[in-house]
Amino acid sequence: MPDGTLIADSIETLMDGIGRRAKAAARRLAGATTDEKNAALFAMASAVEARAPDILAANSDDLARARDAGMAASFLDRLTLDADRVAAIAQALRDVATLPDPVGAVMDRWTRPNGLEIARVRTPLGVIGVIYESRPNVTADAGALCLKAGNAVILRGGSDSLASSAAIHGALQEGLRQAGLPEDAIQLVPVPDRAAVGEMLKGLSGAVDVIVPRGGKSLVARVQREARVPVFAHLEGLCHLYIDRAADLAMARDIAVNAKMRRTGICGSAETLLVDRAVAGTHLRPVLEALAAAGCEVRGTDEVRALYPAAVPAGEEDFRTEYLDAIISVALVDGVEGAIAHIARYSSHHTEAIVTADAATAERFLNGIDSAILLHNASTQFADGGEFGFGGEIGIATGKMHARGPVGVEQLTSFNYRVRGTGQFRP
Amino acid sequence: MPDGTLIADSIETLMDGIGRRAKAAARRLAGATTDEKNAALFAMASAVEARAPDILAANSDDLARARDAGMAASFLDRLTLDADRVAAIAQALRDVATLPDPVGAVMDRWTRPNGLEIARVRTPLGVIGVIYESRPNVTADAGALCLKAGNAVILRGGSDSLASSAAIHGALQEGLRQAGLPEDAIQLVPVPDRAAVGEMLKGLSGAVDVIVPRGGKSLVARVQREARVPVFAHLEGLCHLYIDRAADLAMARDIAVNAKMRRTGICGSAETLLVDRAVAGTHLRPVLEALAAAGCEVRGTDEVRALYPAAVPAGEEDFRTEYLDAIISVALVDGVEGAIAHIARYSSHHTEAIVTADAATAERFLNGIDSAILLHNASTQFADGGEFGFGGEIGIATGKMHARGPVGVEQLTSFNYRVRGTGQFRP
Q1: Inter-chain CB proximity B416 and A259 less than 8 Å
Q2: Residue B3 has what pLDDT?
Q3: What residue in B sits closest to A127 (Cα-Cα)?
Q4: Quick one: fold of A8-232+407-417?
Q5: Burial class (CB in 10 A: 0-12, 13-18, 19+), B125
Q6: How far is A68 from chain B (nearest CA, A)?
């Protein structure tokens, strides 16, 4: 594997070759049986376990370089592998093997008056490009999900985790080999050059069908801005929780604390709390006190601070900010219509939740908001492919095309129509 | 309405305003009831009938200008309206009203072990841009399909049909008004400048969710090349018909003649005939004689010409050509695998058909080819939303994302997830 950086011309040549090989592998994978794909996934898991010492040694090298470069503790944590994390990578590969194979599933089937039988059948998408940052486990997770859906994948991990990713990638290729599937089904860009990302975003001469960025906002923003192929992504998860006049107070409090504080750094954590003015007198303070007791900084409008003086003043910018931290912005609104209006203005179209005992109000909220996931009487932290029963996800998408919400193996497929006749021709 | 051309700066301002108004209308339409949308469609149909004299007068003006400009007879035919065609436009609007409303339909529904009920529900896509050429009826057809799916639409018709389209558009707006829906739900770009297309392809500051080009190859190619938003389209329909060794000869002959000759100018017409070498001696000549008798020029490889000397020599380029005319290219292949290999090399991923009595061979063909529509023992000319039972189509897509194959009202929708709980929070 080349180790240093290459000049731009060589990168283009390198990446075009990767694209061509991925496309060839995708054709073979489209015809792979469920047994072949699962055999590869189980063999990958065994290879990851067998190669654990090599993987950990490579990770030590990455970590040493990152420490020398003065990277932050949170970065080093994301980069770090240990025996437990390697075991979890192997287990995740086995978990993907146990998922139903989406390819070949009949999505719809109907018969026309002329006797033609039409079926809409899931097919692989083709070639998926995954661009991620420092977490080495994404190499295995993304590779496995793409393979299960019959796709070839081109992985471009962060330069800081290249040795770790390459070691894991070696185990994946061993699994593919053992199952008789092409090694090019899962390729890892072997150089750290940023120009490789640019080539992927251009689509590698039509070889790449979709790009999935996994990482921070600046990576996603670059991908969304520059990609000439479709992208499955969310730029941010500015999720709202609305407590309606008909909300049970205890339920509202429990959901608010969970939606914000269970994990503050994930895209499904609530960033803004909206409370119905009609129950501000009864519901606002207990909910905010529970959030504060859980360690959350509360930022409120003047109205909120009048009822809960401990709140920090919230400015317009707070309602546009995805804190990804133990901070929440709070505003009062006029019932569900006020909540819908606020969310239409500030939402990132990811996930929003309402707490109410009024079924009609809940339906109005669920029908009136254009976000990927809408919840009634449940925490925003359920915005997750695993929690949806998808058995894993490669990310969450906020675009309205093809995949929206959690992107699992089914969302990594396309479909076509199979029409069966008995000699029909069109009059 | 401005009549002349505008400078580029004004076009940008004009189009941005159209985009903003479309987005505002889309928000209102997303909450429109089925009754409101259908009332608008019926009122539009009545308005088209009531305004038929104005529409025909505007069309006469367009035709006079086109004749003065020396346009071809086929162009003039596409542009021409008469009383029957106006009546057909009104009927098409009523037909769309009778289609089921896709918005709000539950696509999937399941319950998680923790009691969360998850439903995947169809929602409008948002704002659709339709760019078309000289057929004025597209104004009504595209406007109606987008409205039924709860979308706002921005129509950009050919400059040669602007007066006709504007007259029809006036009737559509009258229908929207009568139903209490915003007139901005269906906007027509009121100027002929090509720069307006460029602005639409850039997405009008994020207002446009998808572009649908309706027209010839050069229009579609420009849209696919320049669009910064998703496109539903096919560049060409280079459709294949494969006659297998297990084909019934009479069925093969009837399907071949229909697939090529029923209408030669549509995207679903067959352009290449592949015949299994194993039955070349029995099947080739009768099929080609039937095609020739129907008025088709047959172009064949040397092998084909040895068995059917009347064939014109076919070069490599013939197998890459969508004739859209009474011409067919013919080659021999080694069974279904040979057909799959030929199609993988030359196909435009639109529609391919096999004639065979062997079920296993048919399944291999249907599973082995990456095209939007695959048919067994049926004519390629069934590649049509109406024939699929979609009740109309805005086009046929060959991309693998979101919509593939015929694009009807269902394909003009997105979806989101509605999660109903009883106070669940995530452990």
Answers
A1: no
A2: 46
A3: B400
A4: Aldehyde Dehydrogenase; Chain A, domain 1 (3.40.605)
A5: buried
A6: 38
